[in-house]
Design brief:
Keywords: Signal. By secondary structure, the chain is α/β, with parallel strands linked by helices. The protein is built from 5 helices and 10 strands. The protein has one domain: Response regulator (Rossmann fold).
Length: about 180
């Protein structure tokens, strides 16, 4: 049941992230980057930020993509979308210092060797860190995307999220592959 729900949520998010014509029978298969974007879109729907970081109103929700590799085009499908009544803005950054004003930072695998330095440089309050770097959560990140049995899933470092003042929905936590306290 839980596996079916996870699959359903990922597919539902893909319908939101990917234009309808891309999902037609004659289109190419969904890419790994599109699945990552779908997960990221759902994550932000199930996170509550402190009012000091994301005040009431229409302040945009900003997602930063840090590192080399696939450019930000895989996240561009989220740009301009609405989440919790806020417009999503996507930015490509090259240094952690550029994440000021962002609520989410996706750290590319190219940054593996600098991960500890990056995580120390992320503001201590209100920034959700997400990556598909191996063992991301055990290294101090908050949400790690992992592939198991050819399916993308995620792990959560609840302690890191709570220290940053973020509240993760129990619905999201139920779907996590594992939770680190």
């Amino acid at each position: 049941m839980l596996k079916a729900l996870t699959t359903y949520l990922a597919l539902a998010a893909l319908l939101v992230v990917c234009p309808a014509q891309r999902l037609s029978a004659d289109s190419s298969p969904v890419t790994e980057q599109q699945v990552k974007a779908a997960y990221l879109y759902n994550f932000v729907k199930f996170v509550e930020w402190p009012a000091s970081v994301l005040p009431a109103g229409t302040t945009p929700l900003t997602i930063a993509l840090l590192g080399k590799g696939a450019g930000s085009e895989w996240l561009e499908g989220l740009s301009g979308r609405q989440v919790k009544g806020r417009r999503v803005v996507v930015r490509q950054i090259t240094r952690v210092e550029e994440c000021a004003g962002c609520q989410v930072i996706f750290i590319q695998p190219s940054e593996r060797t600098r991960l500890k330095e990056i995580l120390r440089g992320v503001p201590s309050t209100g920034v959700l860190t997400v990556s598909d770097i191996k063992n991301f959560c055990s290294l101090g990140g908050m949400i790690g995307l992992v592939t198991r049995n050819d399916k993308m899933q995620f792990e959560v470092n609840l302690g890191a999220a709570e220290r940053a003042g973020l509240r993760l929905s129990s619905q999201m936590l139920k779907l996590a592959l594992s939770i680190v306290e």
